[in-house]
Structures
1.
Amino acid sequence: MTVHGHKIDAGLPPILRPVIAELLARRGSLLRDWVARHGSPLNLVWPDALRENLDALRAALTEHHIAHAIFYGAKVNKSPGLMRAALDAGAGLDISSLYELRDARRLGAEGARIVATGPAKTPAFHQQLLDCQALISVDAPEELEDLIAALPADGGPQPILLRLQPRDQKRSRFGMPAEAVIHCLARLASENRLRFDGLHFHLSGYRWETRLAALNEAADLIAEARQMGFSPRMIDIGGGLPIQYVDEAKYQAHLAAQTPEDYRTGAVPDSFYPYGGALSAADWLSELLQAKMSKGTSVANYLEHERLILAMEPGRALADQAAISVFRILRVKALGPDAHVIFLEGSSFSACETWFASEFLIDPILVPATRAAVQSAPVRAYLAGHSCLDEDVISNRWLTFPTAPKAGDLLVYANTAGYQMDLLENEFHRHPMPARFCVTQDAEGRPNLVPDTIGEL
Ligand SMILES: Cc1ncc(COP(=O)(O)O)c(C=O)c1O
């Protein structure tokens, strides 16, 4: 099918949890009411999705008899509701700042349920981590020295991990190469206020195969540490477990068919998140656990034989289906006979993939203001917000709407909890920060909003 000579692709409808599909399909007036009261964009969070995602990962781990520790990567979203859901479901929290730590503590997390990652920990952050004896992933020999300097004379033993920079991530600023890990171990041999609990890595990209390669490197270092007299008990493989946002076949067809003309910029972005990957997070984990390490045993058997806990810090994957972002359409402006820009109340700081020279490759869902959508010719448009910068748009991709959107309709981006919702949100043009609520159900089963703040949860 074509619109004014432009092809319309098959589309990339997002996979939706039934509760969200039902809200979008049947409760448009409730959504509009919420947006009228709380503004646009409105971020709606379903914390119970996190528990379901956690259960799926745990099922894969227990099937392989793996001792494990799952820490929710709290950086993925600013919602305290999601942090609380992780704690209530028995998971820990992966935090990377003093402020995430404070929220974790205010939500009741003991130090034993916290791992602190990231290379740029401030002295105040170190101090509070030491105060609650949270597990600290040490990023570099320099950080180890800072930490030692901060230890009280009679303190400890303070648990730490050493963060490995796997060989194929040599240009990364995160972690340290194997030689530096050995250097740190030698330093730890004379420092009994610190307890070496094991190794940590977190890799860019979403392939389990790269984690297998890093696990092989970690296994060599675990053996070396044991020879040096340490008793490591954990390997933490970081995050990067995938989300399936759209159907795999549709995604592959879309990638194969898209052309530069499909983008306002006249260029297809160089890279995309694998929005239509073949594996769920749980299947990804199972593939990794069954994979053979270089010594011939499976990862699962290696971990069991070495009595190692498999720790991980999924952020995005635990937030799968946990939020949507609802934008109100402000205006639909014709740019010519076959092109429009749809202005949304909000900005690309909320749906922010264009800031990474990429694109959130799922289709937004139109929720019309009136129940019976007025039939019209299809409309081809890109999305922009209130920003004054010409290049700053919400989608560079030309989207085709079978029915013309109009002012007052809602456009909903689904599955935004993982970095797509509030990573870059700010008060540009002094617009207030978008509101965020947890969606619960009242006694009659109707959706209900609860402010997503620590005080209200
Ligand atoms: C150290 C560390 N762990 C975990 C994560 C979470 O990654 P993801 O959201 O891809 O699971 C990140 C993300 O940057 C990270 O830096």
2.
Amino acid sequence: MKINVLKGMYDVLPEEVVFWQFIEKTVRETAALFGYGEIRTPILERTELFKRGSGIGTDIVKKEMYIFEDRGGRSVTLRPEGTPSVVRAYLQSGVTSQGEIAKLFYIAPMFRYEKPQKGRFRQHVQFGAECFGIKNPAIDAEMIIFLLTIYARLGLKGFVLELNNVGCGKKECRESVRKGIKDFVSGKTNSMCDDCKLRLEENPLRILDCKKEGCIEILSGFEGTDSLACESCRSYYKELKDLLSANAMPFVENSRLVRGLDYYTAVVFEVTASGLGSQNAIGGGGRYDNMVKELGGPDVPAVGFGAGIERVIMALKSQCPDFPVSTATDVFVVYQGEKALKKVLFILNTLRLKLNISAKAAFGKSMKAQMRTANKLKSKYCIIVGDEEINKGVFKLKNMESGEEKEITENNLKSIRQLFRGKNE
Ligand SMILES: [Zn+2]
Ligand SMILES: [Zn+2]
């Protein structure tokens, strides 16, 4: 009998793996720019870690974890989300005792036993980042900019940043938010879904997250969690918004945004993308100042994000049929004379940014050396820019395989795209 892959799991075949490599590479490169070091933690952890870290009240812990007993009789769990494992590793490595700041990122598979649906799998891969040891709106802003930079560098368009303050870790603050929600829905609880009736007692914040129509209806006109929160986290949240605005980072405030985890303190954020239908969240995160302590460490503040790679691939595919950008060199731009450099950059930008064609050049090298490099990189085409060509606004296009040459005008560079038809489609 043939054995198939488990329900909710999938193989990544060679033609699909280029998407993954492209995203992984982009995440690693961007993380390096932002000063984050990669961490790799085991897939298997003690069940206790997620019960305490993710929170026993969450759907993840209550219904979705792959839990089993190992041969030594320990209860172990396949990692359902990244943050608790990173916190554990951070504590275990001992850096906290020196009060050092740690900036870590990961790319790792997560396991959740949930109903498979579009863009949701039982094994899915996330990239994420955590920063320990700083509580300042600037680091929250940096974390958000880090995530958005990854999306931008992937070529994703039309993504929207949503923000909310769900109330900080202080008891009075948390209680005020809970009470505010409870008061708002009191008298209307009959038309709530069964899950929300339970949430009302366990964690009223979760009601805001409910996608059932009746529950959404009940909450219409709800003034939002930020207005119920304490003065200190409200002003923290406001500072973050000011910082984002000052750095031309557009955002939308979503007073219902709570994310699927209970550990967030004050700031939460989520990024949505077009082309995904109703399940349009592609990543998000927030501040979680209590988790390090709850997992047995000192009082260390933390902020982080996580993003599912499968959803990002779906969004990119739906937006850009030419995705992903190939790592092979399609066109090599050869030039003569320093005057030509401006044109070289123009051509490179047009090819890379507008036409999604990989392009290279060797600046500051002789013509001969440039041609040598073009050959070494097995470039498919060369565009040759000389003094004469600049004046005419015409370049030479050389097919490196056949040796055939033809002229191409500056205004008609986009016709090169036809030469790569079928590629990456
Ligand atoms: Zn507060
Ligand atoms: Zn509900």
